[in-house]
Amino acid sequence: MLGPQLLLLGCLAWGALGRTANLRKGNDRNGRCLYTFTVPSPNESSCPGSGEANSAIQELQRDSSAQQSELEAAKIRLSVLETLVKQLGGDETPGLMPPAVREMQSELDKLRREKTSLESEQNRFLQEKATLEKEKRQLENENRNLARRLANSRREMEMLRLGQCPQVKETAADIPQGSKEVSKWGVQNSDYQELKSELTEVPASHIFQESSTNHSGCGELVWVSEPVTLRKAETIAGKYGVWMRDPEPMFPYTRETTWRVDTVGTDVRQVFQYDQISQFKQGYPSKVHVLPIPMESTGAVVYRGALYYQKHTSRTVIKYDLKTESVKAQKEIPNAGYHGQFPYSWGGYTDIDLAVDETGLWVIYSTEEAKGTIVLSKMNPDTLELKETWETNIRKQSVANSFIICGTLYTVSSYSMADATINLAYDTNARSSKALSIPFKNRYKYSSMVDYNPAEKKIFSWDNFNMVEYDIRLSQM
Questions:
Q1: Which tens digits make up the pLDDT trace of 430-462?
Q2: Fewer CB atoms inside 10 Å of the end CB: C or N, the chain?
């Protein structure tokens, strides 16, 4: 009875994973039929270099790769077993479950413990690798400094051997930043030497240069760059999703910490955390959060150490604390459409879209009363209470996506056209909208998420399996 069901689940897993999984059948020591799924895992290349630090790093990389492979295999087995237990056991109490189901439940619990252990071990390997790399860089710097000092000492010894006095030379490292000091020693007369020093002030604007226009303040969006692709999702679950960084991170997270969620499926719970941007680009997560309440669509954001997202098939917004891994607040958005009632034009149940700008946390949605036009509300990030609401004249289903910069809502004309535009803007201060025509490239022709990061002054997007970013330019106030 169990054989055909397992085979059916194996076929489903085979199709869902894009034919990357392998199914094997065999007997265990007790003669019971055992089905095993395995999937390949990306192998991390060894870092170039030499010495004990490189050897230790390479060893950690091999161990981390093996742990990653075991973790991915455990996830597949865990998913299949959970589905099978639900189908076979239903809502029966443990005492009334058939023996085979109880055995499957026991194996499922064992796999959960194994998954937790593997994740912990992988985090330890990554931390040790980062520590060794830091020590390696420090040693390399010390070696360079020692080599430079040794060369200087040799020159001085040679000059002393020839009866010459070594000259003292200042280097750029000896001159304080923000000033220019010039020392002149008079060597014509050995009885008298005069030190002359000149100090020139440098304006602070020459030291702290902004990387793009108007990063320190707000203005209107006037230009969006070509997209830069950071990485591509590995499986069909990543056709569309959401990735983000916290513009106001809380310890232990930084502005480099990146989160990613693949949102294809009916039970979206996994949130992948990457402590460094390099890990995000290579596809090696530092941690995987499992949400206690499933997520819907691509409207999530990370803000002040918490993940804000829409609850599956609900108009409720949830605040999930990433450090404590617990739900801190839940709030229904009054009368908001959900689960396909007022989505963006691409669909994806994008009825409720959260956003962050220089002024705080926002929610973008629509209602029956608004007849499908976009409604904006400013949210209290602690309680999720709505502080102020604006009703626009922009039909939500007529635009592909939207984001907020400096209190102004901007909409994208198309999710599938390669040469789309930022076509409309709604100013919450003036309570009015206007047409725009700012070029916006959908390089892969299926943009399912477009968000703004006020700390980096960039637009993040998820375009047909690909995670991309755009530079922007704002006008002067």
A1: 999 999 999 999 999 999 999 999 999 999 999
A2: N
Within a 10 A sphere around the Cβ of 209, how many other Cβ atoms? 6
How many Cα atoms within 13 Å fall on the side-chain side of residue 162? 8
pLDDT score for 267:
93
Q: Exposure of 405 by Cβ count < 10 A (0-12 exposed, 13-18 middle, 19+ buried)?
A: buried
* Residue showing tokens 């704002």: 474
Would you give the DSSP letter of residue 12?
A: H
Between CA 320 and CA 330 the distance in angstroms is: 9
Distance from C-alpha of 52 to C-alpha of 347, rounded to nearest angstrom: 53
Closest CA relative to residue 319, chosen from 252, 386, 241, 384: 384
- In 10 A of CB 31, how many CB atoms? 7
This prediction's pTM: 0.57
Distance of alpha carbon 192 from alpha carbon 209, whole angstroms: 44
Q: How many residues does the chain have?
A: 477
278-321 per-position pLDDT tens digit:
999 999 999 999 999 999 999 999 999 999 999 999 999 999 99
Which residues make Cβ contacts (< 8 Å) with residue 363, sequence separation at least 6?
Answer: 317, 333, 352, 353, 354, 355, 376, 377, 379, 386
Lowest mean pLDDT, pick from 175-184, 216-225, 265-274, 417-426: 175-184
- 434-438's contacts with Cβ under 8 Å and 24+ in sequence apart are 436/221, 436/410, 438/221, 438/222, 438/223, 438/224
Token code pair at residue 339: 């689960």
Backbone phi, psi, residue 422, to 5°? -80, 105
Q: Are 424 and 433 in contact (CB under 8 A)?
A: yes
Tokens of 1: 């009875």
Q: Helix (H, G, I), strand (E, B), or coil: what is residue 219? A: coil
**DSSP letters along 17-64, please?**
TTS--EEEEEE-TTS-EEEEEE---PPPPPPS--HHHHHHHHHHHHHH
Q: How many CB atoms lie within 10 A of CB 431?
A: 10
Please give the structure tokens belonging to residue 165: 């006095």
Say which residue the tokens 């056991």 belong to.
89
Q: Are 193 and 216 in contact (CB under 8 A)?
A: no
What type of residue sits at position 19? R
pLDDT for residue 420 is more than 70: yes
Q: Is 50 exposed, middle or buried (0-12, 13-18, 19+ CB in 10 A)?
A: exposed
H or E segment to which residue 197 belongs: none
Give the pLDDT confidence of 181-197 residue by residue, as tens digits: 333 334 344 443 333 33
What is the DSSP secondary structure assignment for residue 298, as one 8-state letter? Answer: T
pLDDT of the residue at 141: 82
